[in-house]
Amino acid sequence: MWNGPPVAPDAAEQFRAAVLAEGIRATAVHHGYLANLASPKPFMLKRSRTAFLDEMRRAELLGVDALIFHPGAHLGSGVDAGTKTIAESLRSALEEHPDGHVRLLLENAAGQGTTLGSKFEELASVLAQVDRPDRVGVTLDTCHLFASGVDFRDPSGYGGLMDRVESVLGRENVRAFHLNDAKAELGSHLDRHENIGKGEIGAEGFRHFVNDPRWQETPGYLETPLDEDGYARYAADLATLRSLIEPAEARPSTRKPGRRSAAHGSTVK
User: What Å distances lie between residue 64 and 24, 133, 198, 234, CA to CA?
Assistant: First the structure.
């Protein structure tokens, strides 16, 4: 939907209190999928920017840490024009909320059609043009990485991915992960999430992420499918991820305990 129901101030206060009471250390909201901050069409761009500002206001009211969003699609205008329009959209949004605290996180894409963000260079270009490291960053989605052709399932592949993160994105700009398995094969460019261990990545494909000390304080959120068991599926996926965390004595000396993971069921979706 373009317009969500208003968040009542008392409901927002209850949410903030619940986060503190439950000891949840990281929260995020995900923007709706209709908005396209890269659109070359004036009417769609204006509508998308208005919707984005509304999401920012709601996120600020709820007191969450981050607003995660898909960068958008250039629809034929080209990568350079598309990334420039996204950056302009974000700069405009930040000007409207100069005293806000919510960090805006671009999510990497699976690479379907003219969507932007499947390449780290495109994400880095937007970050550089906005030039607000205090307010913007990146969320890396494992399903989207895999669908875009990045195979991180073995140590060599994971090492190559981390090298690219360091050299192109900058590790400090990666502020969250979406930990999702993938229904479709490597390089499919299809954004089809699967429960952890049930897809083409497989449970072992997440072992490097949950044991890498570089991400120990970076939150990981689930966007895996639900069924008739509801949020119990999130609990099962979290249990699978946590089962991969290696005891200290079994880890190489350069690795430390895995980072925390949280389901969207325990944040805001």
Answer: 11, 18, 30, 20
| Interatomic CA distance for residues 20 and 17, integer angstroms | 5
Summarize the confidence of residues 24-29 as an average pLDDT.
96
pLDDT digits (tens, 9 = 90+) for 151-207: 999 999 999 999 999 999 999 999 999 999 999 999 999 999 999 999 999 999 999
Q: Which amino acid is at 162?
A: M
Residue 262 has pLDDT above 60, yes or no: no
Tell me which residue has tokens 């990045």: 150
Total Cβ atoms within 10 A of residue 89:
25
H/E/C letters for each residue in 64-78? CCEEEECCCECCCCC
Q: How far apart are CA 175 and CA 21, in angstroms?
A: 24
Q: What integer pLDDT is reported at residue 249 of this predicted model? A: 63
Count CB neighbours of 159 within 10 A.
Answer: 12
In the CATH hierarchy, which top-level class contains the domain 9-266?
Answer: alpha beta
Residue range 22-40: mean pLDDT, rounded: 95
Model pTM score? 0.92
Alpha-carbon span 182 to 201, nearest angstrom: 6
Beta bridge partners of residue 136, listed in sequence order: 104
